């Protein structure tokens, strides 16, 4: 459980970094909207109606998420391993979640 939560946090940080990169590269709003849709609506959980947001609202949301995407899971019913792997992949991180550890 705790290891999966650590991987979920890693994915959340990586997703924020991807969003930040997209903002700095001034990617098209449609591309940014599609990426946010993948995060919020393709991995599971409650569906978010991102299509109701204006372009300015999408940019503001993306700016708020650029340091990391807040994620929450219910107590004793956390995210499934497959969902975490999908988020890691979206964040362009290894699906295994393995990292080099320096001691």
TrEMBL record:
<keyword id="KW-0548">Nucleotidyltransferase</keyword>
<dbReference type="GO" id="GO:0000428">
    <property type="term" value="C:DNA-directed RNA polymerase complex"/>
</dbReference>
<keyword id="KW-0240">DNA-directed RNA polymerase</keyword>
<protein>
    <recommendedName>
        <fullName>DNA-directed RNA polymerase</fullName>
        <ecNumber>2.7.7.6</ecNumber>
    </recommendedName>
</protein>
<dbReference type="GO" id="GO:0003677">
    <property type="term" value="F:DNA binding"/>
</dbReference>
<dbReference type="GO" id="GO:0006351">
    <property type="term" value="P:DNA-templated transcription"/>
</dbReference>
<keyword id="KW-0808">Transferase</keyword>
<keyword id="KW-0804">Transcription</keyword>
<dbReference type="InterPro" id="IPR037033">
    <property type="entry name" value="DNA-dir_RNAP_su2_hyb_sf"/>
</dbReference>
<dbReference type="GO" id="GO:0003899">
    <property type="term" value="F:DNA-directed RNA polymerase activity"/>
</dbReference>
């Amino acid at each position: 459980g705790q290891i999966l939560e650590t991987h979920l946090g890693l994915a959340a940080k990586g997703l924020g970094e991807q969003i930040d990169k997209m903002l700095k590269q001034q990617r098209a709003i449609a591309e940014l909207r599609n990426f946010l849709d993948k995060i919020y609506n393709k991995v599971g959980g409650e569906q978010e109606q991102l299509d109701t947001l204006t372009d300015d609202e999408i940019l503001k949301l993306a700016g708020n998420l650029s340091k990391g995407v807040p994620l929450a899971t219910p107590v004793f019913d956390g995210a499934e391993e497959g969902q975490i792997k999908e988020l890691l992949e979206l964040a362009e991180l290894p699906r295994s979640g393995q990292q080099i550890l320096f001691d």
